[in-house]
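anyone seen this seq b4? input:
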Amino acid sequence: MEGLYSHLSAVGGEETFARRVEEKALQGDLQQAERDSGLWRMMADIFDRLCDLCGEKTMTASRMLSLLKLTFGQYDLGALPVSEDAVTLGEASLLRPEGAKAVIVMGCNDGVFPASPGRDPLFDEEEAGLLELADLPVVEGRTSRMNAERFYFYCAVAAPGEKLIFTYPTGTWSGEELRTSSALERVKLLLPHVKTAIYTGKGAQGLFSPQNAASMFFSLPEGSQREELRHLLAEQGYTLPEVRMPMTLQEAKIPYQGSSLRLSPSKIELYRGCPFSYFGNAVMKLKEKKTNRFANQESGTFLHAVLEQFIRAHVQDGKFIPAESEEALRREADGYIDEYLSRVIGGEDHKSKRFLHTCENLKKTLYLLLSNLSGELSCSDFLPAGFEVSMGMKGSKLPAVEYLTPEGKRVYLIGSIDRVDTYEKDGVTYVRVVDYKSYAKELHMESVEDYGLDQQMLLYLFAYCRLNAKEGEVFVPAGVLYNPVRLTFAKETGGETEEDLQADREKKLCRTGILLEDAEIIHAMDRTESGRYLPVKFDKDGQLKKSKNLLPETEFARLDKLVESQLIRLAEDIFAGEMDIRPLKLGNRHDACQYCKLQSACRFSGEGGTEYES
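predicted toks r here
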């Protein structure tokens, strides 16, 4: 080791490094100069340590090389501060600010810092505990994650030698109030003499960064605060326009590349709600992070599968044969449920209590739904002709419906219908499409005609009739129905019998939608004419009562042409590259922004949308 160090000195290693340091300093590159100086000091320190360690021991060249690699690997030159004043930025979980004179802890709000541990995407707390007991700690429990966040907070707070500063917002730009974190409140209790300065955002206090304030200006609601900020920005040399520029420019639009377009009713609805949402979801295919849980969508898939199995098993020789009794129906339902859970998730063994509770509620829902559905089909001449009837999709028996734009471009309608019921009379096949809904759904004709919304089932109805009509065969639209598939509860005020409660629950399962205004066809849908299952009723004389849910055949024909023309106009907008941030809002009935997955991307401020009173 001594010989190797002597060789480095003999060839002028130290002088070479000194010249490099001087050259870099003269060039003004103080950071590189300090790094080169530190490199020679580090090498000298390493040789000193190795000499002390090895003494007069003799070793081979390969052994010496291994020892040098091992020792050099323990050192980190890093970027040393080039002055006494240096600022280091980083997350509390990664930063180790030992020896810092001052520390600024930012974002001390509830759930931000210390951060809320949240929910693990794979395992709940009970499952994490069981894994830990089995010596399989593959995931940290909520308590461990919470303690880790508290430790990061403690390290940040205990680090400075002279000054500690906390910062946190008390509210958002939209006016939402934000709470301080419980850890900061604990610090205030321990250190009661801590000074608190509140910046209200009024006057010059709100202009920590004029550029940032200018960028957020149009997110503020109209009012005195906004005008005061405009005035303050003007004093700083920032002039804002009186009227906001459009969020998208005509010159920036990119026309759709291609002469054909495939659209499903859900994508049509998405574009109607907001073109930019369609652009992000259908064109850019942006995805939100998913978690593994038995959510509404999975529950819906489960209910659809069991309902289909039940109906298929009871339709025989063109008739629906109900279960022998309510008890037999429940046993049959339990069998479907157990088979589905076993096939999809491996049964109910070793599942959390929360999951089992969800399954129990689904069973209650299913008993009620199967009983109601069995009652409807038992008194109906309309029978299911298909389940999950798809068109224009992989494996579909039906092709997509083709439309042509005035420029000759092709638009293909694709999709899948939950259920199609048919009834034949005098050589005419009447078609009814049914959609299972886990929430209350109404078909508003003004939404269909004025805004192009709620067209999914109508598009499916007209498409099915068009695709199945052949020479000598006539298919006539008989209506669309939304079938509730959710657990319903009866209101108890006292004194109700079980029959009363059951009737109340059944009433909440009544279908909604629009039907053909034809007494014979409605009678074929419900021979009891009780109005128990359908949104229409008969009077004492057996005549159909007037209802907004009934439309004559001519009106169905007009709607067919209307939705087709609206679909073609929408396709033309897509071909032209119309992807503006323009959310549609219809009072309390429809808000395109409410469940939009792209809110963090578009940052819509509330201006430029299409808003109508309900």
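The CA atoms of residues 326 and 587 lie 44 Å apart. The chain is about 45% helix and 15% strand. kinda curious what u guys think
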